[in-house]
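re: that complex we talked abt at group meeting.

here r the seqs, copy pasted straight from the sheet so there may be weird spacing, ignore it
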Amino acid sequence: MIKRVEINYRGIFQKNLGKYIGGDIVLIASREGKVAFSNGRYSDAPERNGIPCKYFAFVSPDLSEEELEAECGAKMDIDEADVSVVLDDTMSKGVEPWGWHGIRPINEKVREKGCMLVVTEKGHDDLVKFFAKKPFDYRLATLEGVASLAGLWVFKDDLTRERTLGAIAAVDPGIISIEAVEGYLLDKTKDKKRAQAAREAYDATLRNIKRVTAKEGIDWPHKVPVLPKWHEFEEGGVVVPAVKRGFKMGPRGQNRNEMFKRGTTKTERPVVRFDLCIKCTLCWLDCPDECFDPTDDGLYDIHFEFCTGCHKCAAVCPVPECIVMVDELKFDNEKSPWEDYVKDPAGYVKWAEDKKGKERIYYPPVTGRGKEIREGTTVPAKLAK
Amino acid sequence: MKVAKEVIEKKEVWEREELLTGCQAVAHAVRLADVDVIAAYPIRPYTEVMDLLSKLIADGELDAEYLVADSEHSQFEIVKHASSVGARAFAGSSGTGWMYGMEALVVTATDRLPPLFLVGNRALDDPGAFGVEHNDAMAVRDMGWLLLWATTAQEALEHVLIGYRVAEDKRVRMPIALAMDGAFLTHSQHIVKVPTQEAAKKFLPPYDLGERRLHPDNPVSIAPQVNEDWVIELRRQNWEAARRAKGVIKEAYQEFNEVFGPRYQNPWFTEFQTDDAEVVLIGLGTVAMPARTAVRRLREQGKKVGYVNLRWFRPFPSQELRDCLGRFKAVGIIDRDFAHGSPDSGGILCHDIRSCLYPLQKRPNVFNIITGLGGRDVAIDDCIKMYDIGFKAAEGKVGDELVTWIGLRE
Amino acid sequence: MVQTKVDFEKIKNVRETPLEEFYTSGHRTCQGCESALVMRDFAKASGARTIATGATGCMYVANTSYMTTPWIIPWMHTQLGAGGASAVGMAAGLRALMRKGKIPKEKINVINFSGDLGGGDMGLSGISGALQTDLDLLIILYDNESAANTDIQATGLTTYGAQTTFTPPGSKRRIMHRRWKKNVAAMLAVGHPTCRYVATASATFPALDFLNKTRKALAIGGPTFIHTFDPCPKGWDYHPSYSREIGELGIKSGIFPLYEIVDGKISYTYDPRKRGRIPVREYLEKQGRFAHFIDEDFDYIQKRVDEMWDEWSLPGIAPFKGGLELAAAAK
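got the structure back, here u go
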């Protein structure tokens, strides 16, 4: 019997967290007399800030280490997951980790009767509405919390690690038992608080596991790219055609790399108050991902399929409340915001303010030192008559 | 030099005769090939090719960009990138210098670019030594390179032209190393027939990368990063190209013979007195001279011996060698290289030949001679000793050891 | 002291910035990657008649992962230490082909970009060789102060004391990276008297500066070199939204001097002696890679930066502390 765990996490921001959890699973399972090993998905590396990544842990109570490795190791990706942990709920919208991979559903690997385990403040339905329909039932467990984002050097010790272990024990004790989790944490850290956090998460998660039926979710709109055979692509030193040159004003006016859009890198997306914009150009100028499309009225549209949610535009915009970053899960499409604004300016402003709410997300310079939600101001619409 | 009198047909394709070293012969061929970019860096014993090329440019006989590089790595990279924009390019090196630029040599092959390099075979450091050894050129044998040895200055000159023709063919597009023994070929002067520019142009078409040429009219991205989804397919493509190269080589020699007269009957190797031979030696490079002289002397004594001078090492002419060597009772493989710790401690050429003979139902007895390393002379008497071993091998009296070292103080 | 006037199409204000991209969306760089902005900017400034090579590094791997490309201009990978050689090879190849009538004559911009290692360590030999030639080419060193593509290791351009995987603070030794950052641009300017243009720049501060420096370098003729200062959210450990701010702080603290040398004449793009120099602490403490610093470390860096601007005869550029009066004395 093999238990397979995948940990979906945001590259760099959760690199250490993902690795710790994966490693902890191995050590805890080992304490229970099981055989286990863990590894990162090799093609993810080098990781980039925000890119969706995976870490794996494999556990078996009866196989030898070599057999477990033969079944699970030395592979590019996991075959299927008994538990699929998602450390940032915005990955529920789909993940595209590199070119030619395609945008895949977050629940792609979860097996029948397996369990998605998502760290989120949202409810079951808020997440399932983004999942792909599967031909069988599985489960979704939610672990209350915000995505714990940090950096390479400064870790955010907010007990997400411990709580996730407790939650895994709740959704599938065959992997690790809560007693073993507590014992491990106590032995390792001598800190009762950590074991307690795991236990509390375990208890809470038990109450938050719901079945997802084969009818729930969406028909997944993205195809998986078919990779060409060796004689079907350009021979000669790996030559790919450049992105075709092409630019015109307006939404989607710039030709882009259609092979890898990577919009699934976003945890937040910018919401623009076009009515307040002073057309300084700085958002467009400073965007490292070239997602702004200049329009004939001097405004800048955003191509959300390509936006990576880096916050730079929000940081550089000189007008208060003009560009505000908003939780990516509040949006269910990548339509052109400028087109909506032009069609109905007042309606768009209302929509924008509704999405923004009163929350303004603030990250300190060193990411691992915390994330705050501050209160924003609502600037009235500045609409031409 | 060829033993038989040279058959000179088609006198009009030869412009003049000149006293040239092996290096200088290559320089003239590079001139005739209208090379566009040359990158130079000094290392004995290949340097002289670059000396002459710069003089040819200074005297207006060749129009090419000539860069003196800061290192071999840069030298080879300059040539690789010049090649990528559609310029016919030339560089070269020896020994440890060739190894310094090894990274560049590997990627030139995987980038599928066809510059030509002269390797003046030289012993690898440490310690430093200038004398001939083949390990330098052989280091690229697995990487998707064309690799051949010239035995005379004339052959070297002609194979620069043949080399570009094959390498640049769009069915091939592999870099090519033309190897020549340090000192014995690089430095010794012989009278060489130099072709006319017209004849060279008639034989060698212009270098055309088509849609793979890097140019603003042709926007491509060359060598994007790949992962497990792609590498094995790319390797398969390169492997296929190396297989196709054999057919292109045959075509190239046919075309060459049409323009220059029937100079090469067999692209892969030349056979000397092998028709009824029982014991044959095979080797690369100038060791052919004492070996063939030994053959003549032993034949005078009625011994049935012969010599095979191998030219193309990559692509390796497996079937042709099976057909040839399968006829003999014993085959002695001369390695002017080393492969410490290899299977049965044999040299590099020994392993390739032994391996290609494996499928034969009836195999010759094979023995390996390691000799001439670091420029140690290989005397006629040394070759006679090799044939003596061969006679024993032919009778099935093979010792426990595959390898005999000859010419060594022991 | 007036610099040579170089005839090039200067972008005078942000609204005149060309809108078309030649390096476009769809690359796997980090959120907030300033080096990606450098790519975007040089390609935009250079335009369609350009060929670029990228040495192994973030701007190679991240941009093309996997078997894909964001480049609209023709581009080729080159080896990590081969940046200079690749530019020379392309420029020489094009020049020969044009002169010999094998391809039409036209101005084609030849550009190589290399990172810390390719531009400041391994690749120095080739770049030095390139800057001695008379070929028209531009080499850009995009400096994110680490070997970033290999997941952050120290290089010759890493700031003193920074944490990387090779230089972690430990219980016995707090500072493992004890090397002071090399002045690559100045070093190259001093060593290559026939190289007409060497500059440092940042993609965001001041606005348009790097775009115009690229254009000037491409117009002036001969080999040229620009060293850009690229704050890196991954390696420096800060939230991507701060990329612009940290770049500005790095320049205003004097840690990264911003200047241009045209035909041997220096001009400061940002002169901290005139416009003020903020304490290095304001810049350093915003980055997780210095989270282990104590006062002693901030003070050391401050001292060295003070020296750069207060004691060097070529402030911020070359560590000569006197002796230049000899030149004056001879006159």
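couple things i noticed - The first strand of chain B starts at residue 14 and ends at 20. Chain B has two domains: 4-260, 269-406.
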